[in-house]
Amino acid sequence: MIDFASALYLGLQHPAAQLGGYTTLTTGTPASLAAAPLANRLAAQAAELQGCEAGLVAPSTLHLAIDVFDRIARTHALVADEALYPVMRWGLERAVGLGVPVTWFRHGDLADLARRIKQRRSARPPAVMTDATRIEGGVVPIGRYLKLVSSRGGFIVVDHSQMLGLMGERPALRHPWGRGGGGAVRYAGLTSAQPVLLLASWAKAFGAPLATLCGPDALVREIARDGPTQSHCSAASQAALLAGLNALEINRREGAQLRAGLLLLLRHLHVGLRWLMRTCMPDLQVSRRDHPLQQMHLETAERTLALHAGLRSSGFRTALLRQHHGRYALAVVIRANHCVDDVDALLSAMAALAVRLPGHERVTASRSSMEERQHV
Known about the structure:
- By secondary structure, the protein is α/β, with parallel strands linked by helices.
- It has helices at about 15-20, 35-50, 60-70, 85-95, 110-120, 140-150, 185-190, 215-225, 230, 240-280, 300-315, 340-355, 360-375; strands spanning about 1-5, 55-60, 75-80, 100-105, 125-130, 155-160, 195-200, 210-215, 285, 295, 315, 320, 330-335.
- α3 runs parallel beside α4 and α10 crosses α12 (about 340-355).
- The protein is globular, with a radius of gyration of 22 Å.
C-alpha cells in the first residue's frame, strides 16, 4: 500500500542506529526542577532556528498549550481564532473550564479580529491565539496581527506546526517557502524581540515526537519554571530529544534539497489534478496548493467518501477529515520520500475510480451543460 496519510513531510525517519545510544529513556525528574542537558541543547537550537530569544521542549503541543494558557490567562484577555487547531483548543478549553473568558473571531479575518479587540471590555492587554495557516492553505499575516496587539501591550500565540521545517525566511517567487525551515517568525520577517510565542509539533516535517515553545526569553523562562505540565508531567524522552537534534542536523545538511524536491512533487501533483478536473472529475476542489497536506473534496459527501474508500481498496492510504455541515475532505499528504511514480499511480487510480463514483453521470452532464452555455 502506498501511504499518502503520514504527515512526515520531509520523510525523516530517525532509526535507532542513526540516533546513537542513551543511558536512560527518561530522567524521572520534572523539567521545571532540572531539565535534561539534551533538552536545553535542543531548546536553544530550536529558538535559533525559529528566530526567537529562547526555547522550551515538551512531549507535545498539548502540554505546552496548557502551560501557555495557564500563564497568559492571569494577565491577558484571550482572543482566539474560531478554527483554532483542536489540540490548542483543548488547552484553551481547560482555561475556560477554570472560568477564564475567551473572545472568538472569525477564522483568518483580520478585520473581525480588529473589531473584537476594539470592542472588548477587559482592561487587560489582548493575547491572540491563531494557527499560522488558514484552513484553505494560505498563510496568516502574523505581522499584521502583531500590529493590532503590540500597541496595546499584547502578544500573539501561534501554532506553526504546519510551517516548521517547511517555510522559512525570505520567501520569493522562486522560493515560495523561503529558506531554512524556521517557520512563522522567519517567514514573516519579524525580529526575535517581537511579542510572539511559537508552539510547534516536531512530529510533522521533523519527524520527532516532541514539541517546542519559542519566544521572548523572560516569558519562556517563566513558563518553564511555573507551567503545570513542567512540574507534574514527564519531560520529553531522551530518544525523542535525540531525534529532534538529528532532525536539526539533517535540516542543516539536506533541508533545502528535501524541500525543493517536495515542492516539485506537489507541482507535479497539481498538474495531474487539473487534468482530472478537466476530464473526469469536474467537481474536484483542492484547498491547498503549495503545502504537503492537500485537502480535496467532491461535490457531495457521498462522492468524497466513495473516493476515499475506492483509493483504499486500490492500495492507497489517505486520510478522511470531517468538516462542518456534514462534509468531508480527503487528505492526501505528499512527502519528500515519495517519487513521481507514486504520485502518478495515485492520479491514475483517481481517474479509474471517477466513472464509478456515485453521481458521476449527473456531475459530468452538469459540467458539459455549463460549458455549452459559456460557449454560446
